[in-house]
């Protein structure tokens, strides 16, 4: 089927009941793909507030945003969000509900992170190696 963006079968499953989300074939994921998910009860609210959504997938329980690989570096994604390296997510038959409207499949991770923090009532927290104040 054309337009299916969930990889199943050879190379697309982890062997643990997961599937790997992938952008449609005409959107280049040159930075690799990870995914950030939130419970479905938060999905529509987050979706409506985010500028520049990339590809978004949903199943009955979770909504997933594609982000560049490594978007968890120096970030602590707050619960109940879930960070999925290589975009391997539980196989609950996620489907593409929003296609990126540009040539990039990604949602910018910093605005997504800040919105997830706001949604969960968590203060943003990240560290940058070698950067800090001197006393």
Question: Can you give a write-up of this model?
Answer:
The protein has 135 residues and is an alpha+beta fold. It has 2 helices and 8 strands, in the order E-E-E-H-E-E-E-E-E-H. The strands form 2 sheets. It has a 5-stranded antiparallel β-sheet with strand order 6-3-5-4-8. Strands 1-2-7 form a 3-stranded antiparallel β-sheet, with no helix packed on it.
Percent strand:
15-25%
- Using the CA coordinates, give the radius of gyration: 15 Å
Q: Note the total helix count.
A: 2
Q: What's the rounded overall pLDDT mean? A: 84
What structural class should be given to the helix and strand makeup? alpha+beta
Largest sheet, strands/sense/barrel: 5 strands, antiparallel
Task: Pick out the low-confidence regions.
Answer: 6-14
Task: Describe how the helices and strands are arranged.
Elements (H helix, E strand, L loop, with lengths): L5 E2 L10 E4 L11 E7 H10 L6 E3 L3 E7 L13 E3 L3 E3 L4 E4 L10 H12 L15
Antiparallel strand pairs: 1-2, 2-7, 3-5, 3-6, 4-5, 4-8
């Amino acid at each position: 089927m054309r337009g299916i963006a969930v990889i199943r079968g050879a190379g697309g499953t982890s062997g643990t009941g997961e599937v790997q989300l992938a952008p449609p074939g005409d959107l280049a994921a040159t930075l690799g793909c990870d995914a950030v998910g939130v419970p479905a009860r938060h999905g529509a609210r987050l979706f409506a507030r985010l500028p520049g959504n990339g590809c978004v997938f949903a199943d009955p329980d979770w909504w997933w945003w594609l982000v560049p690989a490594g978007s968890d570096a120096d970030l602590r994604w707050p619960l109940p969000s879930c960070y999925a390296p290589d975009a391997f997510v539980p196989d609950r038959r996620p489907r593409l509900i929003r296609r990126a409207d540009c040539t990039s499949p990604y949602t910018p991770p910093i605005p997504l992170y800040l919105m997830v923090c706001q949604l969960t009532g968590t203060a943003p927290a990240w560290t940058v190696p070698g950067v800090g104040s001197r006393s």
